[in-house]
Amino acid sequence: MAGVQGGSTVGWSSGFTALPTLVVPPSDQLATAYRIVGSGSCQASGTCAKQWMAEVVTLA
Prior knowledge:
Layout: E1 2-6, E2 17-18, E3 22-24, E4 28-34, E5 51-54
Antiparallel strand pairs: 1-4, 1-5, 2-4, 3-4
């Protein structure tokens, strides 16, 4: 799961599913998305000029 906090629209790479964006007027937003992968290792990269977060969730 990944998230970006900022004032402009976020675009996600293919494979990610965007969740609803939380808009905080007048010019802030929190955009989140997730990607489901199989077992094994996972790697991601990207750039962002705002605050961001990433989280790995494991379900057994």
